Amino acid sequence: MLKPMQIGLIGFGTVGSGTYQLLKRNQHQIQRRLGRALHISMVADLDVAKVKAVVDADCKVVSDAQDIISNPDIDVVIELIGGYGFALEVVSKAIEAGKHVVTANKALLATHGETIFESARQQQCMVGFESSVAGGIPIIKVVREGLAANQIEWIAGIINGTTNFILTQMHEKSWTFAQALEQAQSLGYAEADPTFDIEGIDAAHKCSLLAAIAYGIPIPFSHAYVEGITQLQSKDMQFAAQLGYRIKLLGIAKRTDTGVEVRVHPCLISERSLIANVEGAMNAVMVHSDALGTSMYYGKGAGGEPTASAVIADLIDIARMASTDVANRIPHLAFQAQSIESPAILDIEQVTTCNYLRIAVADQSGVLASITSILAEHSISVDAMLQQPADSTSKQTELIILTHEAKEGVMNQAIAKIQTLSTVLMPVVRIRKEDFN
Ligand code: HSE
To answer: What is the Cα 97 distance to its own chain's centre?
Structure first.
């Protein structure tokens, strides 16, 4: 039997300790599959005492990550520090030292992945990042390997559990965004600084990695359209529900004739679709590919052992591929490096979607006609409408209009014109809608 693969783990937080515990608990089954043991022989964390209280005596605990990187006995470095500062230094140095790397760090890969993967290629090292997208759901493996025979048409996912938890609370309890965020923070879903989650940035990191492996393109994070959930109101969820829709924050990557769309924004989706019923902090990713059609992958997108499940799957893949011919290893970004193409990443103005509009208007004759005639001028067709009974004191009401497909740029022009009507009393609320046909 091959000697155990020696692993150095850097960062012993929730996922780090989950990885250590899971590997220890399931070592026997893993060894039955792999024919070799995986051994975390070193851990680096600033809190050495905390780690020592958990790990076995045969695991050396250090406070300096460099002690792991410079140890010639270590085959693989697991980076679970997060962020792009020190984590970038650790990953870069580990690759320079010829170590394989496993990381859950989507922020790092979305922003520095090109450099990291290129230097790994030159050093003949592997970088596993299954845990960086949708936590424990093996979506990287699905898109990169399981669907390798297919052309991927589009991917649409709920890939941030914190925002899905918040939106679920807003839908079910009619809470405001602020109330739901507070609940997410008190339950430990959202960070003290929740910006990356609620502004859609975390989802955009993940969506960019999915787009890269789906289409064989450079990681498009800097070109992605990103809109979070902070402006959403629960009344829009209630109106959407009356029309048969749920509102979810989706990460969407789509191939079109003119380029690739990479976008994260709140979205109306039919309440009858499976993904509309993904509740709380759960994640789900739908993939539409030419041969398989639509498939969906559901599970926990965060947490110690769910994420550790993906980290260890990467360790197993690395252990298997380490002894294979480098040219035949699975490419990091699914496509051979010399086959990466650079189609246009479409500006949001060029993207076509249906739309939900909420328009606060004076309850006067001709208001509806003036709005629909502006839509008609822009060749935007109305799909459904809802009007609330007018408030008898203020003589105001809200019109809800669902449109058929329109190019974003054209929709923006129509909204701008509607906004100029003296009978339109508040900024028009627009939320995109997807049908996934
Ligand atoms: N903060 C992420 C989420 C988990 O809420 O889904 C890690 O990516």
So the answer is: 30
* 97 CA to centre of ligand 1 in angstroms: 30
Residue-wise pLDDT tens digits, 214-245: 999 999 999 999 999 999 999 999 999 999 99
In a domain, 156, yes or no: yes
Query: Ligand 1: does its nearest atom lie under 6 Å from the Cβ of 161?
Result: yes
C-alpha separations of 119 from 4, 99, 320 in Å: 26, 11, 21
285 and 384 belong to one structural domain: no
* Chosen domain end from 87, 104, 128: 128
| 237 C-alpha to ligand 1 centroid (Å) | 23
pTM of the model: 0.97
Provide φ and ψ at 240, rounded to 5°.
Answer: -60, -40
Q: pLDDT band at 1, cuts 50/70/90?
A: confident
| 262-292 per-position pLDDT tens digit | 999 999 999 999 999 999 999 999 999 999 9
Of 99, 106, 141, 206, the catalytic one is 206
Q: What contacts 262, CB < 8 A, 6 or more positions away?
A: 204, 207, 208, 211, 220, 223, 224, 225, 252, 253, 345
Give, for 119, the enclosing helix (H) or strand (E).
helix 106-122
Handedness of CA 335, 135, 221, 155 (dihedral sign): positive
Domain assignment of residue 219, given as a range: 139-299
Task: Please name the residue that has the structure tokens 């639509």.
Answer: 294
Does the Cβ of 160 fall within 6 Å of ligand 1? yes
Q: Return the residue whose CA atom lies nearest to atom 4 of ligand 1.
A: 302
| Statement to judge: residues 43 and 115 lie in one domain | yes
CB-CB contact of 294 with 288 (8 Å): yes
**Is the shortest distance between the CB of 131 and ligand 1 below 6 Å?**
no
Q: How many domains does the chain have?
A: 3
Query: Residue range 317-326: average pLDDT?
Result: 94
Residue 185 lies in a domain: yes
User: What's residue 191's pLDDT?
Assistant: 74
Examine the residue annotation and report whether 206 is marked as an active-site residue of this protein: yes
